[in-house]
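ARCHIVE CARD
Drawer: 12
Card no.: 0347
Subject: one protein chain, sequence and derived structure
Cross-reference: see card 0346
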Amino acid sequence: MTTIAPAPESSARSVAHDPAWHALKDAVMALQPLQAHDGSLAEPTDLPLAAELVEKIICGITALAPAFPHDAEYLSVLVEDFRKWAQAGFGVPDFLDSLLAFQPQLHRVNGLLHLVVFPMYTQNGSRDRLVEAVLVEVVWPDFIADLEGGAYSNKLFVPIRFLDFTPGYATNSAVLFPETVAMREVPTFTWGAIFADREAARFRRVLDAAAKVTNLELPAEAAELVADQKLAQETFVMWDLIHDRTHMRGDLPFDPFMIKQRMPFFLYSLEELRCDLTAFRESVKIERDESADAEARRHAKLVQYAVIFDRIFRFAITGSRVRNYDGLGGQLLFAWMHQHRVLHWTDTKLTIDWTEVPDVVSALGDAIDELYWRSIDRPKVAHWLAAYELVSGTVIPHPASVWAKGPEALPLTGTPREITDQVLDDEFPLSMFYEALEKKMRHVIESTAGITGETPLNEAAGLDGAAGLNGAAPLHGASA
């Protein structure tokens, strides 16, 4: 067990305000416009300026290193990687050595700080491998440590929050993954970090607005999530802990993300939803376990609200309609709850029968598990057809869909590509309810780009006085 002590809050603030950090950050931001898509120097004439900026980055890392004694080896190798890159003339960067030296999963201590500086792309942000700099703080409350040390082991999972960052993270990206770093070869990855503060902050803003638009009266505990960033942040850590480990557990007919393969996008919808509904069902078990830790039980109830509200409000209407698998997962959960009569849209008011929700939502998770279990014995295309049947039995496909016409309409003797090409970009369009909700919520969703736990709940979101979904007066009493 680690003996590293967490940094006090004052230390976190001091590092974020340290002139050395700001000099480093400024140098990184000045270097980014000089880089090409692959991270190399775009114009040879900029070599002297790039060398000067990298030297400033190295000076910043060196000056800040004493604040990160647990990362001493990594920061030392990081400086060497920057020097090698400059000495080689700023070709395609290779930061494998420093990446291998950075092992944040070994020091999961609440409040521990890390300085992350790599040429990398940011998922849901920039696809360019530019140098980015991020100051982060580990979020590891005691009840999470106990869960991870018990039945929910996940040695690779590192929950973090933002202290400061360069423009690549002023986006929708809420993950820090090693595979995004520029490197000469791909190693076995030993950690993955998720920004729980961004997840919680955008959830709070979207739920606050959606409750007003739909006249939804939030349960007291869900209203607490809207009101309390720290509580929401720790709730997302618990959700992510269980979700992340689920990808490699269960009766898996395929390895959906670790092996690159061409599949219809709704297969990814079911995989992500399976992991979320596993977190939901496990949280129901923990909440009902009277012998469980009180904090774990409290957060387990909150995870259930978070999964439902994030899925049906934010996931369903975020992003484009081109093969939006997370969007489809949100639509599927909403329609399942509605068709099982625990979610109601009546008289321009959304209501949910919370006492019935755990069993109904768990039943959807069970249906996906049954699909997976049976599909181990099925050929690939038969699995695809069974998955489509599960989804289309709840969410209505586009009237022009070839897949909806059944197996007879598909080129089943063709290649997987020929079959998947028959799936429309928007195979499962938004319902009339979601079309109306998206129009009302579009500005709120857009306002969450770059959000952190420090961002005020309604800053620039334009929420004051928002009309209800059908133009009715919104309900304001449930918001913070």
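Annotation on reverse: The longest strand covers residues 130-138. The two ends are 39 Å apart (CA to CA).
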